[in-house]
Amino acid sequence: MRLSDESQQFFMATRVGPPSESAGGAADAAGGSGPYRQGEDGEASMRTKAILFGSDFDAPLPFREVFAREFPELDFRIWPDAGRVEDIEYALIWKIDDGVLRTLPNLRAILALGAGVDQILKDPAFPAHVVLYRLLDAGLAAQMSEYAIHAVLDVHRRMAEYRAQQRRREWRRLDAVHPSERTVGVMGLGVLGADLARKLSVLGFRTIGWSRTPKSLDGVGCFYGEGGMAEFLGRSEITVVLLPLTPETQGIINSKTLRQLPRGAAIVNIARGGHVVEADLLAALDSGHLSRAVLDVFHDEPLADDHPFWTHPRVVVTPHIAAQPIAELAMQQILETLRRLEAGETPMGRVDPAIGY
Ligand code: NDP
Ligand code: OXD
Description:
Elements: H1 5-14, H2 26-31, E1 50-54, H3 60-70, E2 75-78, E3 88-93, E4 109-112, H4 118-121, E5 131-133, H5 140-156, H6 159-167, E6 183-187, H7 191-202, E7 206-211, E8 220-224, H8 225-235, E9 238-241, H9 255-260, E10 265-269, H10 278-287, E11 290-295, E12 315-317, H11 327-343
Parallel strand pairs: 1-2, 1-3, 3-4, 4-5, 6-7, 6-9, 7-8, 9-10, 10-11, 11-12
Bound molecules: NADPH dihydro-nicotinamide-adenine-dinucleotide phosphate and oxalic acid (OXD).
């Protein structure tokens, strides 16, 4: 989740009171001066409840403001200034250095600042006994579908060829295909993929989807599991990847699966770079088997200056912006998750670390 300046202003504007002194974050935390220190007569009573924030994307201050107001009993600490690690009951993170979570002995729950959690679960020392919650939609679905539909229509309406013609001042009509004759496949029919599949179907595309377990979606031909993969790929002229990155989906777009796509197919990856074996994708593009790749995510981000994707004539690159959580919606969800945890209720969006999403 990346908070923009406007979002920061939103949080500042909705603040109802002055920031609690106890919300001083790192400095206060390091000094152990949280608001609910209960006494001075023993280790247990000295404990301050704290939440640790860790992100290299998100600005912490708007969160600190909101937490000071909504959860004044929680001392807000910003990694790497964790203060007394025994105090930390919650971690609010996009990602944090490997091994850090394991050093928090009283950690009760991890709240992810994103929909994907591979960047958290990749920690070899991830404390699997601690519950992990992720963002559900939080404004992402509409943006993901917008991005994917833009890419699908660009391919379907042969816009790259028209752009090339324009550069040559060439006036030439190309054949068109009716959407009912075009099959678009969505890999991953979860919160984001299901939204996209429904919208593609409404646009009249022959829409198919692939998931891990069986699904049923109006207007969408659903395939699942390894058994359904070959048929799904064989039909999919434009494939949108919306899978989580897990041990099973790592490198799922490779020379074998690319060969299973129809000749001239296009691929849109808006999930994670780790889904794609980049050398295999380049080979498929160079051979003409694949006509186009629209890529928002990469193995290494930012994409290196000398990466061949930047200049490949069949590749479109965007900098991991397919969707960004809407700050207000994400914050409401995070606060509700915490509220439920504090009340002993069950929050939404629990991740199963055993399957990776
Ligand atoms: P969900 O967990 O809701 O959905 C995941 C879907 O993938 C489910 O349909 C699931 O199947 C399917 N799936 C998982 N593993 C497999 C497998 N091995 N084989 C086949 N299908 C599988 O995730 P979201 O829709 O919320 O998010 C998807 C991903 O999008 C995130 O994990 C994240 O990586 C990425 N993302 C990228 C962003 C960007 O800006 N580029 C922004 C936000 C998210 P089943 O339904 O059977 O469980
Ligand atoms: C996510 C993202 O939320 O990539 O997973 O932004």
